[in-house]
Amino acid sequence: MAIPTRDQPLPTGDDKVASVRTMFDTIAPRYDMVNRIMTFGLDVRWRNRTIKDLGLPTGSVIADLACGTGDFCRTLEARGHSPIGFDLAFGMLAHARTEAPLVHADALRLPLDDGAVDGITCGFALRNFVELEPFFAELARVTRPGGRIALLDVSRPKSKFLRFGYDIYFGKIVPLIGGLLSNADAYHYLPRSLSYLPEPDILSQQVSAAGFSTVEHHQLNGGLVQLITATR
Question: What is the CATH number of domain 13-231?
Fold first, then answer.
């Protein structure tokens, strides 16, 4: 399945799974570089905040889902944790820069025992799942009682002023940068994929319904990204 062009509808079902895998295999070689450029390095700050809010002690075993090239894994290692990275796109794993063990796997069917990990991180991938409820259920299965999850993804500012600038930047400039440095169709798709995400209150309800407590939702940097944390 090819990456949808800007004129094609967003894929659903199995077509979405295939498109997402193809897209990330395609953009893997320059993924980190494009991320740093298009976020002005803020992605580093967002990952640091995510791990801080995860709130687990040093030495915790943490599954990083949709780990990509290992950004979260490297930061987790630097904080003294023991990360394991999982990703559906083999191309991302092939370009990973981390010493953490990496597994080519579907996050909906993790090769982990029940309660196997102390915590879970996931960065900028919620909108890439066909359905979120089965994903949250799988997180609940593999996280030990008392463990924590921290899920980071894009958002859209509530402020009309910020939203105006956001729409121009991510709708026009990000695809231009992505097209020059990587793949134009992929970076047209990524801003559009925000439409897959439910509203924050619905996301929080879904996480709670999966078996998590103390669910918290934060919008960072004026709503450019959102962070969901919860306890198993």
Answer: 3.40.50.150
